[in-house]
């Protein structure tokens, strides 16, 4: 499978996960990923400015002559979005510097997702919390997609909240089991039937080999 490099405005408002149509650019427009990656998340912006300036002084750009000798990557641009695959995103609120502002930027935890502009009057409360936001649209004349606030998860830095963010971002079901499911479980004093030909292998290290997304985990493997 051939990989094509797409960056910046060439993404044409496409978001990671979208199904898109792309056009390969002429070879004289092929490029390379930048050596220096800009930090995007708000937490990273709290780096000491002196250290950041020192890094900029030592991290020189690749000279054009040397860059020309490097192997360029086939570069393309998005010419159409066939299907949107938007989902709710977890992240933090980047409050506007204007005191009376209702529009603020939302910074997703997933760095492949651009910042999202939302409107809310709860900035005082939400700026210290992990929140969930959904995208509504991305107009052609807007630098950011437009979305809306869905719900708050809890305080930034709280271990349980950060764990929930990871579960939500990776689409891992973690809701409590219903009463109907719990009624299917055996009693607390239940013990397995180990009569022959069944063998107790609980002392061995055994790994599940069921495919990704499987909900009926019943295949396992042990090697020795």
Task: Give an overview of the whole structure.
The protein has 224 residues and is of the alpha+beta class. Among the domains are: 1-50 and 70-85, OB fold (Dihydrolipoamide Acetyltransferase, E2P) (Beta Barrel), CATH 2.40.50; 88-170, OB fold (Dihydrolipoamide Acetyltransferase, E2P), CATH 2.40.50. The protein is built from 5 helices and 9 strands; from the N terminus they run βααββββαββααββ. The strands form 3 sheets. It has a 5-stranded antiparallel sheet. A hairpin with an 8-residue loop joins strand 3 and strand 4. One of its GO terms (molecular function) is 3'-5'-RNA exonuclease activity. This is Protein DIS3 homolog. It comes from Strongylus vulgaris. Its main location: nucleus. InterPro entries: Dis3_CSD2, NA-bd_OB-fold, RNR_Ribonuclease.
Q: Could you outline the blueprint of secondary structure elements for this entry?
A:
Layout: E1 19-24, H1 49-58, H2 64-69, E2 76-83, E3 89-94, E4 103-108, E5 116-119, H3 123-126, E6 129-137, E7 146-155, H4 159-169, H5 179-182, E8 207-208, E9 220-221
Family: Belongs to the RNR ribonuclease family.
InterPro entries: Dis3_CSD2, NA-bd_OB-fold, RNR_Ribonuclease
Protein name: Protein DIS3 homolog
């Amino acid at each position: 499978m051939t990989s094509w490099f797409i960056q910046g405005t060439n993404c044409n408002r496409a978001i990671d996960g979208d199904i898109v149509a792309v056009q390969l650019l002429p070879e004289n427009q092929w490029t390379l990923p930048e050596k220096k990656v800009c930090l995007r998340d708000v937490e990273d912006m709290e780096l000491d400015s002196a250290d950041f300036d020192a890094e900029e002084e030592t991290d020189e750009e690749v000279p054009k002559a040397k860059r020309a000798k490097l192997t360029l990557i086939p570069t393309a641009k998005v010419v159409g979005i066939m299907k949107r695959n938007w989902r709710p995103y977890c992240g933090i609120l980047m409050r506007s510097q204007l005191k009376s502002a209702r529009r603020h930027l939302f910074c997703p935890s997933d760095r492949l997702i651009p910042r999202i502009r939302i409107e809310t009057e709860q900035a005082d409360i939400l700026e210290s919390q992990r929140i969930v936001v959904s995208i509504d649209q991305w107009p052609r004349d807007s630098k950011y997609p437009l979305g809306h606030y869905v719900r708050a998860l809890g305080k930034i830095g709280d271990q349980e909240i950060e764990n929930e963010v990871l579960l939500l971002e990776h689409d891992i079901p973690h809701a409590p089991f219903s009463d109907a499911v719990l009624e299917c479980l055996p009693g607390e004093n239940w013990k397995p039937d180990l009569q022959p030909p069944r063998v107790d292998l609980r002392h061995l290290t055994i790994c599940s080999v069921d495919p990704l997304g499987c909900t009926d985990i019943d295949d396992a493997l042990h090697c020795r």
